[in-house]
Amino acid sequence: MTRAIELLKNSFGVSQLYQHDVIKEDKLILTIYWHPLTIAERESIQKKSISEDPNEFALQLMIEKSLDKEGSRLFQDGDKASLRREVEANVLQEIQLAMIEAGQNRGVKEAKAELKS
Predict the structure, then answer these.
(1) What is the spatial distance between Cα 56 and Cα 47, in angstroms, rounded to a whole number?
(2) How far apart are CA 117 and CA 115, in angstroms?
Protein backbone atom coordinates (compact mmCIF):
# COMPACT_ATOMS: atom_id res chain seq x y z
CA MET A 1 0.00 0.00 0.00
CA THR A 2 1.30 3.43 -0.92
CA ARG A 3 1.78 5.84 1.97
CA ALA A 4 -0.25 9.05 1.97
CA ILE A 5 2.88 11.21 2.00
CA GLU A 6 4.14 9.53 -1.16
CA LEU A 7 0.80 10.01 -2.91
CA LEU A 8 0.78 13.72 -2.05
CA LYS A 9 4.43 14.26 -3.03
CA ASN A 10 3.93 12.43 -6.33
CA SER A 11 0.70 14.22 -7.18
CA PHE A 12 1.41 17.69 -5.79
CA GLY A 13 5.16 17.78 -5.15
CA VAL A 14 7.68 20.49 -5.89
CA SER A 15 9.12 18.58 -8.84
CA GLN A 16 6.21 19.82 -10.98
CA LEU A 17 6.93 22.72 -13.27
CA TYR A 18 4.40 25.32 -14.35
CA GLN A 19 4.85 27.89 -17.08
CA HIS A 20 3.32 31.14 -18.26
CA ASP A 21 3.91 32.90 -21.57
CA VAL A 22 4.02 36.70 -21.58
CA ILE A 23 2.67 37.79 -24.96
CA LYS A 24 2.37 41.23 -26.54
CA GLU A 25 0.62 41.73 -29.86
CA ASP A 26 0.78 38.00 -30.66
CA LYS A 27 4.53 37.94 -30.02
CA LEU A 28 6.07 35.80 -27.29
CA ILE A 29 8.09 38.12 -25.06
CA LEU A 30 9.07 35.77 -22.25
CA THR A 31 8.23 32.34 -20.86
CA ILE A 32 8.35 32.07 -17.10
CA TYR A 33 8.62 28.75 -15.30
CA TRP A 34 8.17 27.95 -11.60
CA HIS A 35 7.73 25.11 -9.16
CA PRO A 36 4.71 24.96 -6.84
CA LEU A 37 4.76 27.19 -3.78
CA THR A 38 5.36 25.36 -0.50
CA ILE A 39 4.34 26.46 2.97
CA ALA A 40 7.99 27.05 3.87
CA GLU A 41 8.48 29.28 0.81
CA ARG A 42 5.27 31.19 1.56
CA GLU A 43 6.48 31.90 5.10
CA SER A 44 9.89 33.03 3.81
CA ILE A 45 8.32 35.36 1.24
CA GLN A 46 5.96 36.80 3.86
CA LYS A 47 8.94 37.58 6.10
CA LYS A 48 10.73 39.36 3.22
CA SER A 49 7.66 41.42 2.33
CA ILE A 50 7.84 44.92 3.75
CA SER A 51 4.14 45.05 4.62
CA GLU A 52 1.00 42.92 4.82
CA ASP A 53 -0.03 44.23 1.39
CA PRO A 54 -1.03 41.33 -0.91
CA ASN A 55 0.57 43.16 -3.86
CA GLU A 56 3.89 43.17 -2.01
CA PHE A 57 3.62 39.42 -1.38
CA ALA A 58 2.70 38.72 -5.02
CA LEU A 59 5.64 40.73 -6.34
CA GLN A 60 8.07 39.03 -3.96
CA LEU A 61 6.60 35.66 -4.97
CA MET A 62 7.19 36.44 -8.65
CA ILE A 63 10.77 37.57 -8.01
CA GLU A 64 11.65 34.48 -5.97
CA LYS A 65 9.88 31.80 -8.00
CA SER A 66 10.38 32.89 -11.64
CA LEU A 67 12.78 30.64 -13.52
CA ASP A 68 14.05 30.36 -17.08
CA LYS A 69 13.91 27.12 -19.07
CA GLU A 70 17.22 25.96 -17.56
CA GLY A 71 15.99 26.54 -14.01
CA SER A 72 17.91 29.75 -13.25
CA ARG A 73 16.22 32.66 -11.49
CA LEU A 74 14.91 35.31 -13.87
CA PHE A 75 14.85 38.10 -11.28
CA GLN A 76 17.11 39.11 -8.44
CA ASP A 77 15.98 40.74 -5.20
CA GLY A 78 17.46 44.03 -6.44
CA ASP A 79 15.03 44.04 -9.39
CA LYS A 80 12.05 44.74 -7.14
CA ALA A 81 12.18 48.55 -7.28
CA SER A 82 12.64 48.55 -11.04
CA LEU A 83 9.74 46.14 -11.57
CA ARG A 84 7.52 48.32 -9.36
CA ARG A 85 8.39 51.55 -11.20
CA GLU A 86 9.15 50.54 -14.78
CA VAL A 87 6.85 47.66 -15.80
CA GLU A 88 3.11 47.87 -16.44
CA ALA A 89 1.20 46.68 -13.40
CA ASN A 90 -1.21 44.56 -15.43
CA VAL A 91 1.68 42.53 -16.93
CA LEU A 92 3.12 41.82 -13.48
CA GLN A 93 -0.33 40.97 -12.12
CA GLU A 94 -0.92 38.55 -15.00
CA ILE A 95 2.28 36.66 -14.12
CA GLN A 96 1.56 36.76 -10.38
CA LEU A 97 -1.99 35.53 -10.87
CA ALA A 98 -0.77 32.63 -13.01
CA MET A 99 1.64 31.66 -10.23
CA ILE A 100 -0.91 31.96 -7.44
CA GLU A 101 -3.59 30.04 -9.34
CA ALA A 102 -1.26 27.29 -10.63
CA GLY A 103 -2.52 23.90 -9.61
CA GLN A 104 -5.84 25.14 -8.22
CA ASN A 105 -7.77 23.17 -10.83
CA ARG A 106 -6.28 19.96 -9.45
CA GLY A 107 -8.01 18.38 -6.54
CA VAL A 108 -7.05 16.26 -3.61
CA LYS A 109 -9.82 13.86 -4.70
CA GLU A 110 -7.33 12.29 -7.17
CA ALA A 111 -4.90 11.43 -4.37
CA LYS A 112 -7.71 10.18 -2.12
CA ALA A 113 -8.98 7.87 -4.87
CA GLU A 114 -5.49 6.34 -5.23
CA LEU A 115 -5.19 5.94 -1.48
CA LYS A 116 -8.36 3.82 -1.31
CA SER A 117 -7.08 1.34 -3.88
Answers:
(1) 11
(2) 6
CATH 3.30.2220 fits 4-116, yes or no: yes
What is the gyration radius of the CA atoms in the chain, in angstroms? 16
**How big is the CA angle at 105 (ends 102 and 110), to the nearest 5 degrees?**
120
How wide is the angle at C-alpha 94 spanned by C-alphas 93 and 95, nearest 5°?
A: 90
Q: Is 67 helix (H, G, I), strand (E, B) or coil?
A: strand
Query: For residue 35, which phi and psi values (nearest 5 degrees)?
Result: -95, 160
**pLDDT tens for the 117 residues of the chain, in order:** 778 888 888 888 888 899 999 999 999 999 999 999 999 999 999 888 777 888 899 999 999 999 999 999 999 989 999 999 999 999 999 999 999 888 665 544 444 454 454
Q: List all residues 6 or more positions away from 111 whose beta carbon is below 8 Å from its beta carbon.
A: 4, 7, 8, 11, 12
Please say whether the beta carbons of 33 and 65 come within 8 A.
Answer: no
Could you tell me the residue ranges of all domains in the chain?
Answer: 4-116
